[in-house]
Amino acid sequence: MLWLAALKKAGFKPTLRVEGNRYRLEFTGGDAVALATVTPAVGLNPKADKVVDMFREEAEKGGVKVDIQPPVVQPASRPHGKETKKGEKGAVAIIKVRAGPWEEEYKVYLEDKISLRFRSTDVDRVYQKAHLLSLLGVKTEPRKESGRDKWYIYATTSALADKRVLPAFREALAKAVEEAMRNGWVDAETAERWIRKLREGVTTAEDKPMFNIQITNSGGLQIAYLATSGERLRQYASLLEELGLKEGTHFTVKKPEGGKRGHLHITAEGVVKLAELAKHAEDPELRAKAEGWINHLLERARESGGEDARKRLEELVEEGAARGALKLVGKHEVVERGAKVKHSVEVREAYAKIEDGDKLRIHVKATVDGVEVERTWTFFRHSDRVRGYVLTWADAPGGRAEDARRLQILSKVIFGDAGTLKSDGMQLEYTRRHLEHVARFAELKDDIERWTNR
Fold first, then answer.
1. Which residue ranges make up each domain of the chain?
2. Which pLDDT belongs to residue 86?
3. SS3 at position 314
4. Contact present, 71 and 80 (Cβ < 8 Å)
């Protein structure tokens, strides 16, 4: 009978038949968009989101009417029913919404964050409010309060500013924040940040963290997710491990302790690894999953860290996509910066191997400007940092200085950079950055990655 009433309310023409001890309900008219307005409300699996997504798409195109009334904004109530005075922080916005046959009123609180909250002992009422929110694109599921016969829904800033939320609803929230800011009930800097989020929209994903991605004071890239739930942090870490990333190398996890939030950090090497998988993984499903993480990170970088963070992330993605894609053996040309001098390099042999416990040696045989050069570069770890070197030879053609010059030209081919020549001219030195560059060559990639992941 509930289905019968709901379908009539949504504009369908239902017919109820009795077949023995079963009831059969048939209906015509309407479409999937109309069906979306009633299905979760009358017991269909609320996670069957396809028709709900169709409703939202039609609403964005104007194919179905969603009426969102201008918000009524009031100062937050003080204890004992006293109103806040102008200048005190906190406000509440009341927004009325009609979608399909349903009409609801929501209270949105503007405090240290934006939060939409509703609780009741009437579980059907809670589910109905959650359903209408799902039609608007707000992801929130009814939950039961621990130890109490009360149900509630709760959605905060990121869920309300999600790009999948109807722009009209986000705009109504933005206007509410503007009014609260004008009245001094919300801090101006905070309000402007909220307004920007609501109008531009943010990228969220149910299976991926809301990373904060920024350039640090030291110029590095930080990709961090903070959470009070150790279970959620472990869940996200498991997803990364399933892709083949390793804790300690590609990401780090710290559990929440003593009331403080824990974190999940993805390292620069982790981004490179994801990009490599997205480009080169043999399993198409693995490639697709890794690409999903890369796209999510790029969007979060733009939204949380701006263009500088996004550009730095894009550089790491390009580096990962290039891994194993090039051949070192072959002919190369090096042009000196600021000059028209060209150097001819032909690499005839290149391989890497792990020796002496924890040393990586890269052996290359080549000709540089017609002179034979055969040398081994050694990389090792020192105080958790990667260091590398190659020795210059005094008995090489032209002496040590000419040998160093040829090695620098060859280094530009192998490492993308000449390396740093020590003041005594005895050796050239390299860092992790150089090793990451050389991993783009197919002949060296696997051994370098194996050593890096130790």
1. 65-200, 212-322, 330-452
2. 45
3. helix
4. no
Of 251 and 149, more confident: 251
* DSSP H stretches of helix in 137-203: 157-161, 167-182, 188-200
Beta strands in 173-322 (DSSP E): 212-215, 221-227, 251-254, 262-266
Q: List residues bridging with 343 in a β-sheet.
A: 334
Structure tokens at 22: 């079963």
Look at 189 and 89; give whichever has higher pLDDT. Answer: 189
Residue 70 is classified by DSSP as P
User: Is the Cα dihedral 363, 368, 373, 379 positive or negative?
Assistant: negative
Both tokens assigned to 317? 């993605």
Q: Distance between CA 298 and CA 321 in Å, rounded? A: 15
- Return all residues near 61 (Cβ < 8 A) that are at least 6 apart: none
Q: Does the pLDDT value for residue 430 go beyond 70?
A: yes
Pick the closest to residue 169 from 91, 123, 104 (CA basis). Answer: 104
Q: What are the pLDDT digits (tens) for 48-74?
A: 566 777 777 878 887 778 899 999 999
If one counts every other C-beta atom within 10 angstroms of the C-beta of residue 357, the result is: 7
What's the pLDDT score for residue 290? Answer: 92
Third-level CATH fold of 212-322: Endonuclease I-creI (3.10.28)
Q: Which of these ranges, 100-114, 201-215, 230-244, 353-367, has the smallest mean pLDDT? A: 201-215
Q: List strand residue ranges (DSSP E) for 121-274, in order.
A: 143-144, 151-156, 212-215, 221-227, 251-254, 262-266
Beta bridge partners of 349: 365
One-letter amino acid at 160 equals L
Answer yes or no: are the C-beta atoms of 241 and 247 closer than 8 Å: yes
Instruction: Tell me the angle at which helices 123-136 and 50-61 cross, rounded to the nearest 10 degrees.
Output: 50
Any idea what DSSP says for residue 77?
B
CB 107 within 8 A of CB 9: no
CA angle 210, 216, 222 (to 5 degrees): 35
Give the span between the Cα atoms of 1 and 5, in whole angstroms. 6
Question: What is the length of the chain?
Answer: 454
Instruction: Give the count of beta carbons closer than 10 Å to the beta carbon of residue 339.
Output: 7
Give 383-410 pLDDT, tens digit per residue.
778 899 999 999 999 999 999 999 999 9
